[in-house]
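Thread title: Can someone regenerate the structure for this chain?

I was given the following input by a collaborator and told the matching structure tokens would be attached. They weren't. Posting the sequence so someone can regenerate them.
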Amino acid sequence: MTTKQSMTLDRLLSRFGVTSRSVARRAIVDGRVRLNGRVVRDPECWVTPGKDNVQLDGQRLRPERKIYVLFYKPKGVIVSHGDPSGRKTVYDYLKEHTSPGAQPRLHGAAGESARSGRDSGRQGRKDNWLAPVGRLDKDTSGLLILTNDTEFAHFVTHPESGVRKTYRVKVSGLMDDEIIGQLASGVRLQRGDEARPLSVRRLEDRGKYTWLEVVLTEGKNREVRRMVEAVGFKVLKLVRTAIGPLTLEGLEVGRFRTLTAQEVAALRERRRVQG
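Best answer:
Regenerated them for you:
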């Protein structure tokens, strides 16, 4: 029997802003989590926040302060925590919000020994786990949100929320109105799925190239690039310029800032405003 406030153990770690739900499950299975003094290896064990004592690596868990970061991702930067090839990642830019020991503590390989309680229990600003809200591929630049609020991330990325993602696109040639209309109406992609943008419009023709604005509410992998390829062109440059009401205005490439409470609220309300 569970109450309305009860939830599974892996969800609790995620809701508290400690880590993603999938990584929380691995930490639990590895025996790094205690519930009321006893090691629990079942991620779907039910717990009640405020009543049950949950510890990770010997330190009691409490809800992290929610943090929302807007980052202007440069081209060539990986949206990942660590890269085997040594390429620069978004976390190299975010040291003010996440310390080197924060996220890898739970993202280590299965069987990795737990860190000391003193290291794992820090609750300060520099030990926050932050995850990207959706992703941008290596060759795409622009607006990226990172947060430890998993419910907020789900809202922003879920197509049913209707949050608009706006892109500025340079394509490999001059597109006529018919092809732009075809893109705007939706196209079938090579993998058999379909892309249905909210809008596609010409921004300008500059030299031999057309610049487009593409607005999406879904988030298929490399969707804009695959859309353009489906009509016989290539993407030469791709920048995400906005998510809902949030834009890159005033932010230089490679820089970030914390969102205000008003901006977070406005993004949550965007579906109602757009409807």
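Residues 68 and 261 are 9 Å apart (CA to CA).
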